[in-house]
Amino acid sequence: MTLTVKDLQQNVIGLGAEPLVIHGEVPANLTRARGVEAKWHESNPLLGVVAYLTSHKYAKAMSA
Q1: Running along the chain, 64 residues long, what does each successive block of 10 average in pLDDT?
Q2: Which of these, 18, 51, 55, 62, could form a disulfide with 22 (CB 3.0-4.6 Å)?
């Protein structure tokens, strides 16, 4: 499955200061380690990776 902007728009609930949430599951250690609320998209794990990286980037920008 190819990752598209539409996929992100349909699955991302919040950005920036808000938690970035993707439907599905995420390993608990990943959310605890970074304080990121991201969930793996069941049919496309790459969405979960993008959510994690994007939310971590925004979290760093907000704390700077």
Answers
A1: 56 46 48 44 56 58 50
A2: 51
